[in-house]
Structure formats: C-alpha cells, structure tokens
Amino acid sequence: MPSLRLGNIAPDFEAETTAGPIKFHEWIGDSWAVLFSHPGDFTPVCTTELGEVARRSKDFAARNVKVIGISANGLQDHNKWIVDINEFGAKTGPTDVQFPIIADQDRKISVLYDMLDEQDATNRDAKGLPFTIRTVFVIDPKKVIRLTVAYPASTGRNFDEIIRVIDSLQLGDKHKITTPVNWNKGDDVIVHPAVNNEDAKKIFPETTFHKQPYLRTTPLKV
C-alpha cells in the first residue's frame, strides 16, 4: 500500500492493548493523539522512551493529547515490559506507564501504517516477520495525520521536539500564524502569508514588518 502522507486520514483499526480492546478513532475521540511504534519489547532504547513518555504524561494531557505505543509482541510480554520500564524509570524520576501499548504480533497494524523495515532483509524476528520501525504519528481530533517521523534503531526519540511541534500545530490551528526555525512556545511567531498587511495590523497589533515583505513576526499572547 502507498505510504501515509501528511493530511491523510489516519487508518482506523481495532486492537488489543494493555488497557483493553480499542477502536482507534473512537479511542482518540476529540483529542489529539501520538502513536509511536517499537520493534520489540525489552529493547533498551525503547525502554527509555516509554519511560520518558510516562514521565511527560501531564505535558501531553495539558495539550489534550493521548499517547499510545505499539510493539510487535503480545500482551503478556507488554505487561512484563511495563514492570521493567517503571523500574528503570524510577532511577531518573517517577514513572508509571498508564497509556496503552498495542499488541501487534501479526504486524497487521504495522502494515496498515507502513511501519515495517522492508529495507533490511536481516531485520526479522524468529518467525521471519520484519520488525516494526520506530515511527511517530501525530494525529489531530479530525483524525488527520499532522506529523510523521521515522527514527533509526540506534537513536532515541526526542519528545521535547514532538511536544514542540504539537504546540506549533495547535497554535497554528487556533491563530493565523506559523512558527519560525527553532521556535519554542512563548517565542515570536510568523503572521500567516494568507493574512494581508492591513488585517495583520488589526489581528496582531504588535506585528513587526521586516525588510522582506513576506516576513512579518509578532508576539503571540495566549
């Protein structure tokens, strides 16, 4: 199947998870969602990531974001892995994995979301199935895919960056703005190109008009 693109509707599915069975779109509801995949349970890099997501639970909740993991193992392994994650995470801060982890032993959901490593013929489990690559999907309440990132197995994900992008997307949906390079919440933003200069002055009274006519920046007080 073709790769999923930004702007596509995230495919719906039913799955067994550590929090019980779900229907994905129904589970998202009116929230944003982060779906992030793992090649297998009891893997070192992924263990640190799941612990970090658990520690950042309040940050995600404050942004109306639900998080859900997926790994190519069954529920029994998932539940054992959660014990390890919480135990390891306790060394660096309180960790309590409450978000669901999808069981995807048969790779059905991984195939649906094009999350399989098909490039490396040696990257297979004992049954010969390809491992899930480490992908992140950010999905909005309309079930539209707004961000995709694929990470190599050797490099842990940066959840500060994922939260930063969510902040940018949510502000852009609410206000007529975009965000510049290295932007962080609280920094000046860019007036959206679709807003003409007259409207920019009305909507954003503190707009700075730069020498480049297409570049206008403003503080955003929210």
Give the SSE layout.
Elements: E1 14-15, E2 22-23, H1 24-28, E3 32-38, H2 44-55, H3 57-62, E4 65-71, H4 75-89, E5 101-103, H5 108-112, E6 134-139, E7 145-151, H6 159-174, E8 177-178, E9 189-191, H7 197-203, E10 208-209, E11 216-218
Parallel strand pairs: 3-4, 4-5
Antiparallel strand pairs: 1-2, 3-6, 6-7, 8-9, 9-11, 10-11
Helix pairs in contact: 2-4
* pLDDT < 50 runs, ≥5 residues: none
CATH homologous superfamily descriptor of the largest domain: Glutaredoxin
C-alpha geometry? elongated
Write down the CATH topology of the largest domain: Glutaredoxin
GO molecular function, one term: peroxiredoxin activity
Organism: Athelia psychrophila
Function: Thiol-specific peroxidase that catalyzes the reduction of hydrogen peroxide and organic hydroperoxides to water and alcohols, respectively.
Keywords: Antioxidant, Oxidoreductase, Peroxidase, Redox-active center
Describe this structure in words.
The chain has 222 residues and is α+β, with helices and mostly antiparallel strands. It folds into 2 domains: 149 residues, Glutaredoxin; 45 residues, Antioxidant, Horf6, Chain A, domain2 (Antioxidant, Horf6, Chain A, domain 2), CATH 3.30.1020.10. It has 7 helices and 11 strands. A 5-stranded mixed sheet has the order 5-4-3-6-7. A 4-stranded antiparallel sheet has the order 8-9-11-10. It has a two-stranded antiparallel sheet with strand order 1-2. The longest helix has 16 residues. 28% of the residues are buried. InterPro entries: AhpC/TSA (IPR000866), Peroxiredoxin_AhpC-typ (IPR024706), Peroxiredoxin_C (IPR019479), PRX_1cys (IPR045020), Thioredoxin-like_sf (IPR036249), Thioredoxin_domain (IPR013766). One of its GO terms (molecular function) is peroxiredoxin activity. This is 1-Cys peroxiredoxin. Thiol-specific peroxidase that catalyzes the reduction of hydrogen peroxide and organic hydroperoxides to water and alcohols, respectively.
